[in-house]
Design a protein that fits this description.
Layout (H helix, E strand, L loop, with lengths): L7 E4 L2 E16 L5 E3 L15 E15 L2 H17 L10 H11 L13 H14 L1 H4 L9 H14 L9 H20 L18 H6 L7 H10 L6 H10 L3 H5 L6 E2 L4 E4 L2 E5 L2 E5 L8 E3 L3 H21 L20 H26 L12 H13 L4 H8 L4 H7 L1 H24 L4
Antiparallel strand pairs: 1-2, 2-3, 2-4, 5-6, 6-9, 7-8
Helix pairs in contact: 2-3, 2-6, 3-6, 9-11, 9-13, 13-14, 14-15
Length: 444
């Protein structure tokens, strides 16, 4: 056994890391002298003999585990030492998966505190939901140090097979999101010196096949379906909201965060600089999803005309409400001026689709024809509908990406890859047809 140097010593062929915690409270038994460090709350009696305990402050050193590479051992010691100084150190030998993941979520930067790198409340809430619903029930009681790649792989297979609360299989997207959150959390655990390596790395990354891309094709309407929907819901109170979303590609949260001060009718622009999202039963207002989501979009003239008509209608509702009116300044509101609840808006959108289909069935019965029915879509599908129709119309991908508020064009290309590939195939066919036609022309 080697000598301790910078919190690391050689033990056989490996390297052991430790950290000096200074003096910490410890309980000792008056009868058998058994000792217990006080982790959360003092013990009432000795675990071994049931004897009376007394408290004493004693020097404490925690061992962080053994490592193959001395650099990893030094890194673990240094990270633990920093956390001791900050008062956030936890003994890795006793820390459970549930305890670590819950503390990890709490430690993540928040958008209101760090606009550049912080996470939106909805994102943090989704991380917490994935951890509590899909990780803690089966893995939460394990010691963090006992978590292995094999356990994680088995758990992932379980989620895919029967991970839903009712025993059904989870959607692949949810399984992958859960894996991504756990991977990120465990990567930080390595940085904190709580783990020698990330056990989630053992699961690796599976390459996406062309067939899998097709299975993950996003839900969107084509031009015929969109036209049918807009014609059917023209009399809806929120027709202007549906039209604005599908014409600009903005998110539900961004549309509901719009204020009239963001709309410039003279310039024909709309600024996106806030979002309203549901978080744990309450609506939270903050910056858009990412830093790149702050942007200016340009609706077409038709949408701007409809927005002016909506502004006039809102003024009429204000006069009708009288003293009950809430002067919030939002574009899309209830009849009393209060901003719309995102969840209520989503429900109304589904009802609008159902109403359009019911009207189509009634018309078909009267005419003896076959009804043209809309596929069911979430309101987020209107955003996808904008993107797919814009791409099909030949709008440059850079423009589509900017309107969507994506951080870069590659994200847009990845999300809509199948539509882009289809357009390239059609372009190739058109070019080929043109060349064949030119080849068939007689020479002079």
């Amino acid at each position: 056994m080697g000598k301790m140097k910078n919190g690391v010593k050689k033990v056989g062929e490996r390297y052991q890391a430790s950290v000096n915690l200074g003096k910490r409270p410890r309980q000792r038994c008056r009868d058998c002298n058994a000792a217990y460090w006080i982790e959360r709350r003092p013990l009432k009696a000795c675990k071994k003999c049931g004897g009376q305990l007394y408290e004493k402050w004693e020097p404490r050193t925690d061992y962080l585990g053994t490592f193959d590479d001395p650099k990893d051992a030094i890194a673990a010691h240094d990270a633990a030492k920093v956390r001791v100084t900050q008062g956030t150190y936890v003994n890795p030998g006793k820390l459970t998966v549930a305890e670590y993941l819950r503390e990890w979520v709490k430690s993540l930067p928040k958008a209101e505190e760090d606009p550049d790198d912080g996470l939106a409340p909805a994102t943090l809430a989704s991380y917490e939901m994935l951890i509590e619903r899909h990780v803690v029930p089966r893995l939460g009681g394990l010691k963090l140090k006992d978590l292995t790649g094999q356990r994680l792989a088995e758990h992932r297979a379980y989620l895919a097979r029967e991970g839903r609360m009712d025993g059904g299989s989870l959607k692949p997207a949810t399984v992958n999101k859960t894996k991504a959150v756990v991977h990120a959390a465990l990567a930080d655990a390595v940085g904190y010196g709580l783990l020698p390596h990330n056990p989630a790395d053992a699961m690796g990354r599976r390459k996406r096949s062309r067939g899998r891309r097709e299975r993950q094709r996003i839900a969107a309407w084509n031009r015929e379906e969109l036209t049918a929907f807009l014609n059917a819901c023209r009399g809806d109170r929120l027709y202007t909201l549906w039209l604005t979303v599908v014409n600009t590609g903005i998110r539900r949260s961004e549309a509901l965060g719009l204020k009239w001060s963001d709309v410039d009718f003279d310039e024909g622009t709309v600024k996106i600089e806030r979002a309203r999202v549901p978080v744990k039963g309450e609506v939270h207002e903050g910056p858009p999803k990412t830093g790149g989501s702050n942007r200016v979009v340009e609706p077409d003239k038709w949408v701007l005309t409809v927005l002016r008509q909506w502004e006039t209608r809102q003024k009429e509702e204000r006069l009708k409400a009288g003293s009950a009116w809430h002067d919030t300044g939002y574009v899309f509101t209830y009849e009393d001026g209060r901003p719309l609840d995102p969840r209520w808006v989503s429900r109304l959108f589904v009802r609008a689709i159902d109403a359009a289909n019911a009207e189509a069935k009634k018309a078909a019965e009267n005419n003896g024809g076959k009804p043209f029915l809309l596929s069911h879509l979430s309101i987020h599908g209107l955003r996808h509908t904008y993107a797919t129709i814009a791409i099909a119309a030949g709008v440059p991908l850079e423009r589509v990406s900017k309107n969507l508020g994506h951080a870069n064009i590659q994200i847009t290309a990845n999300v809509y890859v199948h539509y882009i590939e289809e357009m390239r195939e059609k372009d190739a066919e058109r070019i080929g047809a043109h060349m064949l036609a030119a080849h068939a022309q007689p020479t002079i």
